[in-house]
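thread: overnight batch results

M.L. [08:02]
morning all. the overnight job finished for the chain we discussed friday. pasting input first so we're all looking at the same thing
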Amino acid sequence: MGGVVRVDQAQLRAQLEKKLPPKVRLFQLDDIPGVMRSRLGWPVAAALMDRWFRGAAFEMPGEMKAGEAAYRPVVLQAAHLDENTVSMNWALGFSRVNAGIAKLQSQWATPAGISQLKKLVREQSMAHIATQTWRFGDLAQPAKMLDTTCQVNYLGLGQLSDPLDDFYGAMGEATLKVAVSGLVTPKGSGKAKIAIDELGFYLRDSYDFNDGENSFLSQPLGFWGFGGVERVHWGRRISISEQWAREKEEQIMSHNYLVQNHDFRRWRALHGRGGDFIVLSDVHRVRLPFSVQLEW
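M.L. [08:03]
and the structure it wrote out:
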């Protein structure tokens, strides 16, 4: 006499589970700093991105990104200014930074640079006796002070075709600024001469993921995965939250995901963290072998 074979659904599911690969967590956006640090050897880039992920949600306004007067570094809150992560000693390990310093050192005294120097000297001369020589520019001060008191010129540093290295990951396209120091001798009737004998170089960057007016096409930031980053690849959309899949670990490690600016903004909206900030380095001082003499 035939009988009905009852199948225990729970046992069947358990048997199927044993035959499938275990669940493995997929790569997600906030894994990038760990990959920078452990796989790529980018400690500075990782530190800056870690700070962004930890920070309270804040989207940098365009005026702050542009460095307008109301957002000068000297008046920014600590939450919106990083002065301790990027050092010029680290930056000088990259040839493009050295090339930028050499170029700016030889070309800082442009008409615009001299005009800015004159303006600053005139503003500060009122605090000094009209007949006595005084020193303009204290390069021992932090960059946020120099930015207001004695910074006279700058140049853009970095481009999208640069090598994929720690400077690219940390600063990308930054601004190299130069401040000057020298002895001012008043000449009467608003005239003066100045002997510039030292230059101070520092880096400024805005750490944000804004796309400005280009909201239709967000800036691509590479194809990222547990194995590192590639400029050109094929990849699925990056996850901004935890997701798991039944795949072998080697498959998970081989996946790459397209990362764009708007992914960081989506992450901020979901998690309530992600704070933009301004980055300033310390100051690299260069004593000139011969002073630059200017008079007006």
